[in-house]
Specification:
single chain, alpha+beta, Beta-galactosidase, Chain A, domain 5, Glycosyltransferase, eight-stranded antiparallel β-sheet, 17 helices, about 30% strand
Length: about 625
């Protein structure tokens, strides 16, 4: 039982091992990129709750989990819940107990390790402890008992536990960390009485604490009901229900509506990465989160300069794929909402990005230089996915030119030129990775993902996925029989679940066997190392590595379902929705468009909707009056 889990809401998250241990420098309670608490530990009648006496762990969703311990005196249940600013821990014993609670504090930035002479200020009042370090403060609240202040400063190496249990060096290097214990909270409990501990990143007044203590279980249940409701708006026989439910829950956990942010992963990609955010942003449209999508696009638009869009806020790396993704997502948002004002407000940003394209447009292709793609550990030029993204983005700019005004008409011809020049990448059995590098990589799957390819090319790519790229554990970044493949590689040898998700979509209408294999693999990848989440990468031998809870590894799924499996195209400006004529698939889908709830479904060879519809060739058209 050495898997990990993440509880997260609005940028606050708790990272912990499923056996109750806090065995990594990434474990503990964080808000954004700042860590506040290292761990919490309970000594019950002289026996610590730990991996030695845990009997069960249940991950319900990203806001609630339960640990069950069997001690010498009986059963102890620990319920852990997550709010926007605090972790709530409720302890209940089926026997009378003396509980001593220890909380480890380590207020630090995500990039910080051990700091010499780190001194905290401690204040305590009735059932509250405040710990301060520089401008950051951590708060401990508890019900009943007494706080015995006995400060302890020390060091520890929590990452050694992670290393001993098969987590890679990339996960934790075992570095020395600060350790501070302000004292011990001692409490006596009767049988089945609850002791509640609140670990907060902000000060809570009495009323807020009372509401939190009274409603935390209700809030956890309400969130669980919401996840079930949202995931049940899409039911498809070919897709594991746990996979879709996990994707919906994950997308909520990675989002931070308050700060208009999407975290790239937990625990150590807890930053706003523009590329990662833009890849999964269409899935929030599938979840009817249009305001959130608008806020994210608005925030990213503020980053736009003549250099493009940085990979991270304030960063100095300007990838060439990110601006294209931004344009594509902006158009997707417009088609879903009909929000002309939003598109018009970004006119100057689009002009800057189109000027950047012109500077990089050489001999009919986009010249990306060095590490300007998602494979940013490799030096690549004229990368195939960049050509596909920009061909799509320029076409979308052309479609929005009526809103944006003069100066965007040329984008249609440039898009067509890029599309035609993709033939330069064609080989007999695949599309090569770069213009001057004959490498068989998974990047060719971005062609059918972003563009309407002819059936022959789509089939060529799908067959190459099937024969050369699809392994037992997912789609590998580079074909294993290619000379550039490295079994220990990252971008040039690992399996990437987000590629597997894309492959599941683009192959659906070409070779359903490939699509179904990919979906089954994704279902198997769920829970591989992190409860209800999917790792960043997986080795070809099946060992999970990298970030254990990566946003785009699972977050593309809702959009993949809508775009490729159900073939849903929302056109809010024209008040229509088109759906691919169903064949052998039963489904139900609920969509909100222009404040209208649209129910669609196909069962027993009959299409149903709560709106009027008509059949046109291979499509069903719903008209929103």
């Amino acid at each position: 039982m050495v898997k990990v889990n993440v509880l997260a809401k609005d940028g606050l998250f708790l990272f912990r091992f499923n056996d109750g241990e806090f065995g990594s420098k990434w474990c503990g309670i964080w808000k954004g990129r700042t860590k506040y608490f290292d761990y919490f530990a309970f000594n019950v009648n002289g026996e610590f709750l730990s991996r030695q006496n845990i009997s069960d762990f249940t991950f319900y969703n990203s806001q609630f989990a339960r640990y069950t311990f069997k001690t010498k005196d009986g059963t102890v249940t620990e319920d852990t819940s997550c709010t926007s600013d605090a972790i709530i821990v409720s302890l209940r014993c089926d026997f009378p107990a003396q509980i001593n609670t220890e909380v480890g504090v380590n207020i630090r930035d995500r990039t910080e390790n051990y700091v010499l002479s780190k001194i905290y200020a401690v204040e305590n009042s009735k059932n509250m402890i405040k710990i301060s370090y520089n401008d950051k403060k951590a708060f401990i609240y508890y019900t009943g008992g007494e706080f015995i202040q006995k400060q302890y400063y020390g060091v520890h190496r929590p990452g050694l536990y992670a290393r001993e249990n098969g987590f890679s060096k990339y996960f934790d290097d075992g570095s020395v960390q600060n350790k501070f214990i302000p004292g011990i909270i001692t409490t006596k409990l009767d049988k089945d009485q609850n002791f509640i501990l609140i670990l907060s990143t902000k000060e809570l007044d009495n009323e807020s604490r009372y509401k939190m203590l009274s409603n935390w279980m209700i809030s956890a249940k309400e969130y669980g009901d919401m996840i079930n409701t949202v995931s049940n708006t899409t039911t498809i026989s070919e897709i594991p229900s746990d996979l879709l439910k996990g994707a919906i829950d994950a997308l909520y956990s990675y989002s931070d509506p308050i700060n208009r942010s999407i975290y790239a992963g937990f625990p150590y990609f807890n930053e706003f990465w523009t590329r990662d955010a833009l890849f999964i942003l269409p899935s929030y449209l599938s979840m009817n989160q249009t305001k959130f999508v608008r806020d994210i696009l608005s925030r990213i638009s503020a980053f736009v300069t003549e250099n493009g869009i940085p990979a991270t806020e304030g960063g100095n790396l300007y990838p060439m794929d990110v601006p294209a993704l931004f344009i594509i997502d902006s158009y997707e948002y417009y088609m879903r909402t009909g929000d002309r004002a939003m598109i018009k407000s970004m006119e100057e940003k689009f002009r800057l990005l189109s000027t950047l394209f012109k500077k990089r447009f050489e001999n009919g292709l986009v010249h990306d230089k060095g590490r300007e793609t998602w494979m940013d550990s490799l030096d690549r030029e004229y990368s195939i996915e960049v050509q596909a993204m920009w061909s799509s983005a320029l076409q979308d700019l052309y479609k929005m030119s009526e809103i944006l005004g003069a100066g965007f008409e040329w984008t249609a011809d440039a898009s067509d030129a890029l599309f035609v020049n993709l033939n330069k990448y064609r080989r007999e059995r695949y599309f090569k990775d770069q213009l001057d590098a004959d490498i068989n990589t998974a990047n060719q799957i971005f062609l059918p993902y972003f563009l309407d390819l002819n059936p022959k090319d789509s089939k060529l790519i799908t067959e190459n996925i099937k024969e050369k790229l699809l392994t037992e554990y997912g789609v590998v970044s580079v074909s294993q029989d290619d000379k550039s493949f490295n079994v220990d590689g990252y971008h040039n040898g690992a399996i990437w679940p987000f590629l597997t998700t894309i492959a599941a979509g683009v192959s659906y209408n070409i070779d359903k066997e490939v699509s179904e294999r990919c979906m089954k693999i994704l279902g198997n990848n769920l829970d591989l190392q992190c409860s209800s989440r999917i790792n960043e990468i997986i080795r070809v031998d099946g060992h999970p590595e990298g970030c254990p809870s990566q946003a785009w590894s699972i977050g593309l799924l809702p959009n993949i379902i809508d775009k490729f499996i159900l073939g849903i195209k929302v056109n809010a400006p024209e008040k229509t929705i088109s759906i691919k004529t169903p064949e052998d698939i039963s489904f139900h889908r609920s969509i909100n468009v222009l404040n209208r709830n649209v129910e669609i479904g196909y069962e027993e060879e009959k299409f149903r909707s709560n709106h009027q519809f008509e059949r046109q060739e291979d499509k069903i058209i719903i008209k929103l009056d």
